[in-house]
Automatic annotation (TrEMBL):
Protein species of origin: Streptomyces prunicolor
Similarity-based family: Belongs to the DoxX family.
Coarse class of the protein's main subcellular location: membrane
Protein name in the entry: DoxX family protein
Compartments in which it is found: Cell membrane
TM stretches of this protein: 12-35, 55-72, 84-101, 107-128
Glycoprotein found in the keyword field: no
Keywords in alphabetical order: Cell membrane, Membrane, Transmembrane, Transmembrane helix
Superkingdom, taxonomy of origin: Bacteria
Protein topology in the membrane: Multi-pass membrane protein
Length: 153
């Protein structure tokens, strides 16, 4: 059974990445464009451009979430998005109370840890990162085999 689970692991990580990235990008889209219920606390509206920290967080959510969703630059995008959620938790939510259940910071805490996990696991299967890695490996293999061709004397 462990063998089957180990073979499925890259696909489970890939699906996890896709779901987490999509949910995060939806938060950014809601705040920036007023879709999906709009920004929290705006009664379905958007955040004013350039307001700190909300508008910048929404841009990170939309762009970072999209990059994670696609599996493009996953580790870097996940590190930035994880950091933004850590900032949101400690600067915004923890002022109200210590525990996430008390201060409304559950989503921030969960996103922070989910993205931190992706920093270490990478994109898994089904990501654009994998396509680039395969192309690089193929190109490196072709150069290596061509470089090792014996030369006739």
């Amino acid at each position: 059974m462990n063998g089957r689970l180990n073979k499925a692991q890259p696909y489970a990580v890939g699906l996890f990445r896709i779901v987490v990235g999509l949910l995060f990008a939806c938060h950014g889209a809601a705040s920036l464009f007023g879709i999906l219920g709009g920004a929290a606390g705006t009664d379905g509206g958007t955040l004013d451009a350039g307001t700190w920290p909300g508008w910048y967080a929404a841009v990170i959510q939309l762009v970072g979430g999209t990059f994670v969703l696609l599996g493009l630059g996953t580790r870097v995008a996940a590190l930035i998005t994880s950091g933004s959620m850590a900032y949101a938790y400690f600067d915004v939510h923890q002022q109200a109370a210590l525990w996430p259940i008390q201060n409304g910071g559950e989503a921030s805490a969960m996103f922070c840890w989910a993205f931190l996990l992706l920093v270490f696991t990478g994109s898994g299967a089904l990501g654009v990162d994998r396509l680039f890695a395969k192309r690089s490996a193929t190109a490196a293999g072709e150069r290596t085999s061509a470089d090792q061709t014996p030369v006739a004397a």
